[in-house]
Specification:
Spore Coat Polysaccharide Biosynthesis Protein SpsA, Chain A, Aminoglycoside 3'-phosphotransferase, Chain: A, domain 2, alpha+beta, 37% helix, five-stranded mixed β-sheet, 531 residues, 2 domains
Length: 531
């Protein structure tokens, strides 16, 4: 197989430049990246079907890249574009949707399949435009964008597939007898094939996304691609082996297999050694002063004793190096999957276990004190907080008075509820990892972080609170949560300024959180706490 088809004809609703051509990093575009990956895996014939702003694609025309124009792109959908290459395809081929961003490993695995069709799926993204998948024994039985037709949310279809020459002829024949110009190719494939002709590769914790609008493009540029870059960055294996020498004294650690698995502020590695798998955490730059490692060690071990944190095998409170058990075949939750009702019920139980543990964690985590501390760290780093900080900070700090009026509880809290800190094992058990910012705090702060980090819908937020409080939600709960949401956005905006002063690059992450804190603050009735 040496052929690939890339579909890039769609008219964009909010951009004069097709999204496959918009650079999201220096000289990197969706189309250019896909072509480079295809060449890297040995594909020598690449057909790019274009339509909207077709002339803009001319720069990609090459000996191995041919542009095919769909003149009816405004009035058709993906199958019409795919049918444009019907007289050019004489073999099995790879199909790539031009608006899809993915790890190169996906196309590599697809290209290694010797015959037949193959789809690709991963966990639900929560984008709102998911094509949901149901499977049986590794074969697709149903796909649908209507969640009301899905019995089991097993995952989401990616715009990457392998299509056999025989199946392609069948879908083209069916297309030519159809009177629906807006048919999508994947539904025709479901129509013309049997279940056993629809095998699927499932990737867990895949870094990927689709770009359907400017919001998606901004997320790709500022978040998704940066995560992938951190994952793919070469690492110093010799330095990691030195850490393993300390962790496994007297053992020949040169036999350990080390695989980088990403991380936002830290670098994480999967270590396979002597028949067991672990996660090695190496702190990133700029965490000094923000994270007290001795507190983290004590609190994380308490989390293990509560049964909500995977077992920790080694922790160096001076360096922050940590080794914990790797949860095999675990699903890292995301903003979409975390809001499934099944997961919300389990996470409510986790928070009950933590909040009701009566465990006294080693430190208190007072967000107001942390904001003051981060302010000093910003000045120490010779950095500057975002515009308007001098006027905005007193407004934020005044929330302490209102929270005291509403009532503040103190209990063990995790304080860092990004969805990636919830991992789901094969047996359905959910773990809460990464206790860097844990401490004694108000449980409303945990809920605020939980809702904020995954952009909870109002329905999901209400469902979770009803589960946690067993339908008896205390008065003022939502106002208390709103106050903490403002505080978290403010704190993580400061955190970003400090991190970037130490060499990291988080794009618009910090200013976006700062602006959202301002917007959330505008919802507060200031007369309730101003005298």
């Amino acid at each position: 197989m040496n052929t690939a088809v890339i579909l890039s004809a769609r008219k964009e609703r909010d951009s004069q430049i097709p999204y496959p051509l918009l650079p999201f990093s220096e000289d990197v575009t969706l189309l250019g990246r896909s072509i480079d990956i295809l060449r890297e895996i040995g594909i020598s014939r690449i057909y790019v079907v274009v339509g909207y702003q077709a002339e803009m694609f001319n720069a990609y025309q090459a000996k191995d890249v041919q542009l095919i124009v769909n003149p009816n792109y405004e009035f058709t959908s993906s199958m019409a574009s795919l049918a444009m290459v019907k007289d050019l395809i004489d073999d099995d081929f790879l199909l790539v949707e031009g608006d899809t961003f993915y790890e190169k490993e996906v196309l590599k695995k697809l290209s290694e399949i010797q015959e037949g069709n193959c789809f690709v799926m991963t966990e639900e993204s929560g984008s709102g435009d998911e094509c949901f998948v149901e499977t049986k024994a590794g074969f697709i039985t149903k796909i649908s964008k209507d969640r009301h037709r899905v019995c089991r949310f097993e995952g989401e279809l990616l715009g990457l597939s392998r299509i056999s020459r025989i199946t392609f002829k069948m879908i083209v024949d069916k297309w030519e007898s159809s009177d629906n110009s807006f048919l999508n190719y994947e539904y025709l494939m479901m129509d013309v094939t049997d279940v056993l002709d629809r095998p699927v590769l499932k990737f867990r914790n895949l870094i990927w996304g689709e770009v359907d609008n400017m919001k998606d493009f901004k997320r790709l540029k500022e978040v998704t691609y940066r995560i992938l870059r951190r994952k793919e960055d070469p690492f110093d294996k010799e330095n990691l082996l030195q850490h393993l020498v300390e962790i496994f004294p007297g053992k020949n650690v040169t036999q350990a297999e080390i695989i980088q698995i990403g991380g936002m502020s830290n670098k994480n590695f999967k270590v396979n050694f002597e028949g067991k798998s672990y996660v090695l955490r190496v702190p990133g730059p700029g965490s000094e002063g923000m994270v007290e490692r001795s507190n983290e060690e004590f609190n994380a071990l308490e989390g293990c004793r509560m049964g909500v944190n995977p077992e920790i095998r080694y922790f160096n409170a001076k360096t922050g190096i940590k080794l914990a058990d790797f949860v095999d075949n675990a699903e890292t939750l995301n903003a979409g999957t975390i809001q499934r009702h099944e997961n919300l019920r389990k996470i409510a139980e986790i928070y009950h276990r933590v909040h009701d543990s009566h465990v006294r964690l080693k430190n208190e985590f007072c967000v107001f004190q942390e904001i003051e501390k981060y302010d000093k760290l910003i000045k120490k780093a010779n950095a500057v907080m975002y515009e308007g900080w001098k006027e905005f900070k007193p407004e934020v700090m005044a929330l302490e008075s209102r929270l005291n009026q509403l009532g503040v509880e103190m209990c063990a809290c995790h304080n860092d509820a990004v969805p990636e800190n919830f991992i789901k094992a094969e047996d359905g058990t959910i773990y809460l990892i990464d206790w860097e910012y844990s401490g004694m705090n108000d449980p409303m702060a945990d809920f605020a972080a939980f809702f904020l980090e995954s952009e909870f819908s109002e329905e999901s937020q209400d469902y979770f609170l009803r589960q946690y409080y067993q339908d008896n939600i205390p008065p003022h709960t939502n106002e208390r949560i709103l106050c903490y949401e403002i505080l978290w956005d403010t704190l993580w905006a400061q955190w970003t300024v400090i991190k970037e002063a130490n060499g990291d690059d988080y794009g618009t992450y910090g200013i976006d959180r700062y602006n959202r804190a301002k917007e959330l603050l505008s919802r507060i009735d200031h007369s309730k706490y101003r005298q």
